[in-house]
Amino acid sequence: MSASPRPAAGQYNAYYDTYISLVPDGANPLFQLQQQPQELHRLVGHLTNEQALFAYAPGKWTIKESLVHIIDTERIFAYRALRIARGDQQPLAGFEQNDYVPTSGANDRTLESILQEYDTVRAATLSLYESFQPAAYDRMGTASGFPVSVRALAFILPGHEAHHLHILRERYLPNLPA
């Protein structure tokens, strides 16, 4: 996928506008997916396991939980892209992120293991998207009760991560206990 037009408004739920807007106009979303691991590792790779248990406010996820959320979301959205790219027209169920996080066991894992899983998932996502024929990007399916295209999912993924990287930079890292 070279520089790619944004998905049309009817190709995704408007809820995802924020994420899609975080992919620069005319940019290849796969390039952003390729670049994000370096940024993520630079932001959190130096943290201790104790620091990665930090949450910036009561009831908010820890850094580890946020990272596992990024991984879980990427897996689910890549799975959706695979099914839709292959012409599967079965409606795909949504997922409730607030149910996933508490049962993820993120806080019992090492930061190193989470980052290794992140790298593995990202490599698989990139490999999947690079395998798609150009026509696959415009295939439509249904996820969480809304139409969605493979192209939209390609934009949502890096936008979702960019959103969380922003939160890490703005709310978590400046407030880490010394």
UniProtKB/TrEMBL annotation:
InterPro entries: DinB-like, DinB/YfiT-like
Pfam families: DinB_2
Domain DinB-like: 32-167
Annotated protein name in UniProt: DinB family protein
Lineage, broadest ranks: Bacteria, Pseudomonadati, Bacteroidota, Cytophagia, Cytophagales
